[in-house]
Structure to design on (953 residues):
């Protein structure tokens, strides 16, 4: 019986020209989104590869100079797109794309995509994820708003019941009919994206992530299918059920995400860059606790070294004390940066937590965050990239300082030059992509809410059956 | 409650009837109240954002001015004492002065910024300015981004107008005629001599008045906050914002008027209104942005590497140094007769600084191309009213608030001019005096934000097109209703 109802539902849609137009619209806009993302990401990959290569050439072509001065010439790190960025670029378009890495300071990530776009981007960035998160639920609504009340109004519901179908069977058959239609589309679409991304941006296939994205989106579409059929079973007037569903969609997908983001920021504000830099500068010069100034630190280290090596002056030390103190200063500065950047990251993580909890009112927030995590474009991945870049910076500066410490003599800052192979020794930053298992814990709350939404709606539908029959 | 109005006493009588029908439903009041509160919440977000920017700028500016004042005090220091001597050398020495002179440049939010945050959160609004290469400094400085907020967008007054007011209009008007047709009341109303056009005209007039009250309340509150809290008088841009908002809600009223004029049922109207909202507020803006980005390419590869500090042994080469200074004085003839000799202690520093300035001159072209491409993207959006009215108006709102890329670039060019003014005050010391004097410091520029006039033909064109579409929809709608 279930199969017959589903088949009948599909047959009706097949005969309805409006439905065909809607599906054609979906197909068209989905392909546009895919083409746009593929072209954008492949272009991005080429640009960043070229930028990284020319930066590398500049680094290698610099003349032989003092290692610390060479370190000051600096290096660049450019973010490279991953395969599933073609599906969901997530936060990657709102964060900086490159960073300049030099001694003594951790620079900001600059040149975000949003700085180079028009204000139209505030309305959304056309990507397959936007289609699946925003447009697909809307189409599910259009296919399901009259699923039950429509049958009631024309009297065919009674006919169906009289043929032996239970009310619950009808509800679930209608839900499955609409869900399957979009699930088939989504499955094909996702595989097309993965295959195209593999072909055009030469990104490695991440099968577990693809499966995870498929599973969570399926759950999301199931929620909307349940909601559409449930509302249509509760409201007799077709117009009212349509209006209510549209209102729910607008609230959950447009209004609540903004309200929650603003609320989160009001609760956990991010410090201004000026205040941030000021505090760092003070902590570097006066000490993290305000009692350990840079002069005191240097004197203390000098005393310790002289005592350790049992010598009277720094010139007698078995290494260049200038290089040693330079690295000590770097280590201290790094400690300060860790402290203050940690606070900024914590604010952002807290904001994300507030948004995650607001997914109780909006499955859109849940799927958005889960999708970003699955596609390696979440807050955690962005922070991780920044941390990897920062670790690279520290390693690279330390390498240059160690050259100064171990190979040059005290007081030869003006005359010492690095070995000609030194520059080639410093490799470019290789960003490690995190596996899915690393990302999942960060979206645990959202995944739970998505399950709660699905289970809740399922239970509501069961309850609805008991009330009706 | 009883309505004593004579139905045939048109249109005032009918307007009273519509008012009576409207007030009969308590849910309408709740809806209006909720929307008003949402409007105030949007205004509060705008206020919070503006307040954060203003207080950051004030602290930043006062800190930098205080530091400079402290530095200048070195001229009055007792040079017989080591501390006094050090302070004097710090302020008068060319190198130390260069190192310690850090001037503030900032973009104070204008009055309309309280209504439209726009891209204000993605662009820096203050820069520290030193003597060295402007672009080298510029492309190292940015505000700490909050990608989570950028992803969701702001709930500001602009959002309230662009996204939420249409929703209110849809909820209040989507079935004005269809409801009467569906429940069979229309025959009764029509038998009183009321035409569908009069019925809709009066209902829409009533809704327009209600929305006008909400909009005026929000805009007036914003203006009062600007006046009392930020000491800003109402400006032309505020007025234009208000006019734009009015045109936009009238545009949406005419859309709903048109949909109702088709004489279809409630279900059709709901579907149609929802689809139009989705198309205008989500699909068309994203599609337009996509097309614009495809049309105008932007590449930051060259720009992104301008942070690298030029260095190398060439700076120790006197022939190279003389060549650089000679190249420099071609465009700055005031120093033509005073080319420093390599034996001058200021020589190497002059080479360093002039090299930076020449580098800026050549980089200006590259940066300008980069900025122009981004600005063209914005301009296309702002002019896309015919196919993309919501995003076009939103772009124009952000333009009025100077919270778009154009506003940021204008601020950058203003800062560059400020950097140049600093050079003009400092370079005479470098070329002529060999050290800094108190008078030279007095010549150092002080940054003041210039709010550029945002009133452009683009804006008026946007208004005009919005009004034209509204008129066309109303006209066609009226004709449809006459046939009904």
């Amino acid at each position: 019986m279930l199969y017959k109802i589903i088949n009948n539902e599909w047959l009706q849609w097949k005969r309805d020209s409006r439905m065909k137009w809607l599906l054609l619209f979906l197909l068209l806009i989905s392909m546009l989104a895919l083409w746009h993302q593929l072209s954008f990401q492949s272009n991005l990959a080429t640009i960043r590869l070229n930028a990284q290569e020319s930066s590398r050439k500049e680094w290698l072509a610099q003349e032989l100079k003092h290692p610390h001065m060479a370190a000051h010439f600096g290096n660049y790190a450019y973010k490279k797109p991953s395969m599933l960025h073609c599906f969901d670029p997530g936060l990657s378009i709102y964060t900086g794309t490159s960073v300049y890495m030099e001694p003594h300071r951790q620079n900001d990530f600059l040149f975000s995509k949003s700085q180079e776009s028009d204000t139209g981007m505030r309305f959304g960035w056309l990507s397959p994820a936007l289609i699946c998160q925003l447009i697909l639920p809307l189409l599910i609504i259009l296919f399901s708003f009259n699923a039950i009340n429509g049958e009631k109004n024309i009297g065919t519901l009674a006919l169906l019941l009289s043929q032996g179908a239970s009310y619950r069977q009808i509800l679930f058959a209608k839900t499955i009919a609409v869900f399957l239609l979009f699930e088939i589309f989504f499955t094909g679409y996702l595989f097309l994206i993965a295959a195209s991304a593999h072909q055009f941006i030469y990104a490695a296939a991440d099968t577990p992530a693809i499966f995870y994205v498929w599973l969570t989106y399926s759950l999301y579409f199931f929620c909307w299918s349940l909601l559409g059929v449930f509302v249509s079973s509760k409201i007799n007037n077709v117009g009212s059920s349509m209006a209510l569903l549209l209102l729910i969609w607008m609230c959950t997908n447009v209004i609540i995400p903004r309200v929650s983001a603003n609320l989160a920021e009001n609760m956990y504000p991010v410090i201004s860059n000026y205040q941030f830099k000021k505090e760092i500068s003070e902590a570097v010069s006066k000490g993290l606790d305000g009692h350990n100034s840079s002069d005191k630190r240097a004197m203390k280290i000098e005393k310790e070294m002289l005592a350790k090596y049992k010598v009277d002056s720094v010139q007698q030390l078995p290494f260049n004390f200038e290089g040693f103190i330079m690295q000590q200063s770097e280590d201290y500065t790094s400690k300060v940066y860790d402290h203050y950047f940690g606070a900024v990251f914590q604010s952002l993580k807290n904001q994300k937590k507030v948004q995650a909890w607001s997914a109780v009112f909006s499955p859109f927030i849940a799927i958005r965050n889960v999708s970003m995590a699955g596609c390696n474009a979440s807050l955690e991945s962005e922070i991780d990239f920044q941390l990897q870049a920062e670790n690279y910076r520290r390693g690279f500066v330390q390498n240059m300082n160690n050259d100064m410490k171990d190979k040059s003599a005290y007081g030869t800052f003006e005359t010492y030059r690095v070995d000609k192979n030194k520059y080639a020794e410093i490799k470019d930053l290789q960003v490690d992509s995190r596996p899915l298992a690393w990302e999942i814990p960060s979206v645990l709350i959202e995944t739970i809410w998505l399950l709660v939404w699905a289970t809740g709606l399922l239970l509501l539908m069961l309850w609805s059956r008991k009330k009706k029959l | 409650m009883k309505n004593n109005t004579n139905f045939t006493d048109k249109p005032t009588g009918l307007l009273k009837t519509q008012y009576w029908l409207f007030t009969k439903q308590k849910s309408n009041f709740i809806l209006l109240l909720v929307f008003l509160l949402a409007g105030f919440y949007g205004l509060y977000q705008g206020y919070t954002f503006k307040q954060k920017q203003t207080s950051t700028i004030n602290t930043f500016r006062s800190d930098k001015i205080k530091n400079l004042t402290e530095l200048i005090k070195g001229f009055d220091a007792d040079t017989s004492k080591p501390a006094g001597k050090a302070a004097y050398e710090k302020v008068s020495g060319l190198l130390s002065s260069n190192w310690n002179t850090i001037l503030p440049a900032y973009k104070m939010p204008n009055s309309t910024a309280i209504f439209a945050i726009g891209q204000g959160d993605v662009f820096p609004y203050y820069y520290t300015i030193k003597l060295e290469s402007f672009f080298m400094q510029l492309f190292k400085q940015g505000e700490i981004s909050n990608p989570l907020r950028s992803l969701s967008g702001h709930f500001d007054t602009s959002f309230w107008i662009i996204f939420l007011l249409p929703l209110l209009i849809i909820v209040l008007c989507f079935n004005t005629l269809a409801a009467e047709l569906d429940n069979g009341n229309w025959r009764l109303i029509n038998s009183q001599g009321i035409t569908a056009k009069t019925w809709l005209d009066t209902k829409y007039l009533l809704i327009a008045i209600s929305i006008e009250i909400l909009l005026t309340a929000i805009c007036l509150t914003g203006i009062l906050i600007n006046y009392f809290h930020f000491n800003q008088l109402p400006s032309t841009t505020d007025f234009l914002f208000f006019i734009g908002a009015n045109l936009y809600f009238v545009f949406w009223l005419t859309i709903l008027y048109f949909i109702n004029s088709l004489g279809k049922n409630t279900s059709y109207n709901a579907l149609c209104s929802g689809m139009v909202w989705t198309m205008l507020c989500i699909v068309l803006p994203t599609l337009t942005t996509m097309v614009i980005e495809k049309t105008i390419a932007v590449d930051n590869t060259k720009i992104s590497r301008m942070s690298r500090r030029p260095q190398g042994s060439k700076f120790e080469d006197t022939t190279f140094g003389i060549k650089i200074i000679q190249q420099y004085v071609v465009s700055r003839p005031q120093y033509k007769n005073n080319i420093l000799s390599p034996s001058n202690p200021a020589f190497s520093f002059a080479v360093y600084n002039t090299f930076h300035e020449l580098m800026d001159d050549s980089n200006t072209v590259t940066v300008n191309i980069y900025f122009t491409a981004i600005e063209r993207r914005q301009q296309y959006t702002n002019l896309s009213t015919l196919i993309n009215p919501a995003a076009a108006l939103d772009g124009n709102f952000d333009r009025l608030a100077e919270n778009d890329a154009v506003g940021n670039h204008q601020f950058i060019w203003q800062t560059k001019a400020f950097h140049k003014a600093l050079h003009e005050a400092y370079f005479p010391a470098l070329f002529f005096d060999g050290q800094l004097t108190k008078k030279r410091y007095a010549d150092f520029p002080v940054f003041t934000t210039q709010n550029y006039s945002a009133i452009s033909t683009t804006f008026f064109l946007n208004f005009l097109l919005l009004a034209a579409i509204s008129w066309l929809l109303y006209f066609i709608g009226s004709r449809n209703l006459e046939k009904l």
